[in-house]
Structure formats: C-alpha cells, structure tokens
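SAMPLE LOG
Freezer: B-3
Tube label: C17
Construct: single chain, 213 aa
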Amino acid sequence: MKFAFTIARRFMLGGKGAGPSRLTGWICIVGLAAGTFALIVSLSVLNGFEERVTSRVVGFEGDLRITAIEDDIDLMSMLNEIKRDQFTVDAMPYRERKGLISTGKQEQRLVTLKAIEVDRFSEFYNIKMDENKKGNEQSIYIGQVLAQRLNVGIGDDVQFMSPVDYSGQIGLPRRYSGKIAGIFRAEVLDVDDRIVFIPMVLGERLFSRKIGI
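STRUCTURE (predicted):
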C-alpha cells in the first residue's frame, strides 16, 4: 500500500524541483475533487427528486391496478379479497373513459373522466385540495390548471359527455351535469389539466359500453 501511494504521489506531484509538473498535479487533484463533489450532489438531488415524484404518483395512481380482461370475472369479489389482505392499506373501484367537459360559457376541454366513490376522495387520494365541499352524487373534482382554462370555481355547474357512449338508437352522446365540489393540485405530469373525477353513479350511467371496473 505504501509503495502504491509513493508511486501515485510521484506521478501526481513530482519530486523536488519538478516545477510545472507539481502545479499540474495540484490542478488535477483540485479538478478531480470538484468533479467528485458535483457528482455526489447531483446524485443526491436526483434521488430526492425521484422519491418525491414516486410518492406523488403513488398518491394519485396507487401501487396496483387490476383490470378485467374478460367480462365473466367478478371484480367486486376480487376487490373484497384484496381489502381483506393484511398488507392492503386501502382499495377502491373506478371506471375511466375519455370524455368532454364543458361550461355554460361554451368553454370545452377533452379530459379523462374517472368515476370513483367521491365520498372517499380525500380519504383515498393523497392530493392537495384547495377547497373541498362534502361530496354527493353530483359532485365532481377537477385540477387547478383545468379550472383556470375553463374559468370555473367551487360550486359552478359543468356538463360532461363521453363521445363513444350513445343513448338509445338516436346515436347522440350521453350528457350529464355536475357541480364542482373541489379543485385539486396533484402536480404530477398533466393530471391537473386532464383528469376529472366524477361519482361512480354517474359513471355507471355514462359509460354504457364498458361493464368492467
């Protein structure tokens, strides 16, 4: 070990009277130390950022999604089994579909309608909420960015429809109304601009072409 240290020291700093080689050696040492320090700081920042993003995504999407491939699968019994598992913190069914949301001011946006049990919204989702009224069968929750684009706030009425679901033989899309009960700030990707939570009751009426949960 001493021999290797001596060789390294000789090459880095040179001997007595080395002149410019000694200066070059010190410059190399300082540069290497600065580079190592910068690398350590960068890795620490990235690790912290990754942990924060992961916690936000998990707080919104959960750790696991279960989707039925075949219609004969009883998802509700499967959900009850999952809830009984000792390692399960919580579980909740949902339905999802692309749709259109509009206001009385003729503002419209293409969004993803997510039907959930709205009375458990704050209990299940770890999302920041600016304001929140008690949920009911007409309550919907939208993101902060989407609320700004539509120019709406808490208590305003909106309409939403699913273009792929039709009512009867007329062929017109199903349309329902709801009242904004909360504006959330997920701060994950484009969630604040694209996701709208609606009651499961309305989701069952609106998503006529999808049986599974």
